[in-house]
Automatic annotation (TrEMBL):
Catalytic activity as recorded in UniProt: a 5'-end ribonucleotide-tRNA(His) + GTP + ATP + H2O = a 5'-end phospho-guanosine-ribonucleotide-tRNA(His) + AMP + 2 diphosphate + H(+)
Protein function: Adds a GMP to the 5'-end of tRNA(His) after transcription and RNase P cleavage.
Residues engaged in binding Mg(2+) 1: D29, G30, D76
Subcellular location: Nucleus
Record bears the keyword Ion transport: no
Residues involved in Mg(2+) 2 binding: D29, D76
Protein species of origin: Aquilegia coerulea
Keyword entries, A-Z: GTP-binding, Magnesium, Metal-binding, Nucleotide-binding, Nucleotidyltransferase, Nucleus, Transferase, tRNA processing
Cofactor: Mg(2+)
GO molecular function (one): GTP binding
Protein name: tRNA(His) guanylyltransferase
Gene Ontology CC terms: nucleoplasm
């Protein structure tokens, strides 16, 4: 490599290596999706195809980058965790962040037509991103719990809000005032009393958000001469809408945190 007197500018680059032996979480969030969703006429409060598109992009992420072991998404956000021992881009923060954001965004644009065949995309989507390292499994578990609780709170509020606006003809201001200061139980009551709606019967994708991870699935690899199937366990990227707050999920999928 030829040297030059200009080479010293390289030394201005700062080292941004992430702490070793920590879980690397990258969270991305759609920029100005309030407007993006309105321009593209997403259904309120939840456009299921928009969520499926986000999930499909997350699946592509896990298939492309083996160090990502789990991800969780809701609304216009997605969080990806890289395994503790990951040496992806030598754990350089800006590399990991920019690769995640650009690969996800490129997929979002590329896959749009698969999920919205009737709609041309209005506005150019973009996502912001951040990287956070978590030292313990407990911290990481609490991270997912934090996002899923947030999903619940927002979804319950939004469900009430849009029911009042779309089905009761309330203005957005009136709906806001009605919901001001209400607790979880009040909102469940409101949905039941006024709309005969049982919140817990709403689709899990809305209430719980989406998990994308590698699951062990049994696969038939061949058949014996007598016609019996020969099965093998294989890891396959799956989407599921499970509870990540309780122990159950982590006990059933120990390989995620144990690597
Ligand atoms: P990475 O592989 O992580 O992207 P990088 O961005 O530092 O590393 P490259 O993208 O391969 O490196 O190259 C960028 C440019 O910087 C190239 O033109 C290369 O010649 C130059 N370069 C890379 N490392 C040095 C160095 N230590 N000193 C001077 N120039 C360098
Ligand atoms: P910022 O750039 O600060 O993130 P934002 O407008 O994206 O601003 P968020 O807090 O990220 O604000 O909220 C995302 C908004 O996108 C939601 O409030 C909702 O209006 C809309 N949205 C995202 N996904 C969906 C969806 N699947 N269905 C309907 N609306 C959605
Ligand atoms: Mg956003
Ligand atoms: Mg958001």
């Amino acid at each position: 490599m030829a040297n030059s007197k200009y080479e010293y500018v390289k030394s201005f680059e700062v080292v941004d290596k992430l702490l070793p032996n920590t879980w690397i979480v990258v969270r991305i969030d759609g920029r100005n999706f309030h407007r993006f969703s309105a321009e593209n006429e997403f259904e309120k409060p939840n456009d299921v195809q928009a969520l499926n598109l986000m999930n499909s992009c997350a699946v592509a992420m896990l298939e492309e980058f083996p160090d990502i072991i789990f991800s969780y998404g809701v609304s216009d956000e997605y969080s990806f965790v890289f395994k503790r021992t990951s040496q992806f881009y030598e754990r350089r923060s800006s590399k990991i962040l920019s690769i995640t954001v650009s690969f996800f965004t490129a997929n979002y644009v590329m896959k749009w037509k698969d999920f919205f065949p009737q709609k041309d995309m209005r506005l150019v989507p973009s996502f912001d991103g951040r990287v956070v390292c978590y030292p313990s499994n407990e911290n990481l578990r609490h991270y997912w719990a934090w996002r899923q609780v947030d999903c619940h709170i927002n979804n319950q509020y939004n469900t009430c809000f849009w029911m009042l606006v779309l089905n009761k003809g309330k203005t957005k201001k009136e709906a806001q005032d009605i919901l001001k200061g209400t607790q979880t139980q009040d909102k469940n009551e409101l949905l039941f009393q006024q709309f005969g709606m049982n919140y817990s019967n709403l689709p899990a994708i809305f209430r719980k958000g989406s998990c994308v991870f590698k699951n062990k699935v049994e696969e038939i690899v061949k058949h014996t001469e007598s016609g019996d199937p020969v099965k093998r366990l294989r890891k396959k990227v799956v989407v599921s809408h499970c509870d990540v707050i309780e122990d159950r999920f982590w006990k059933d999928h120990p390989w995620i945190l144990d690597e």
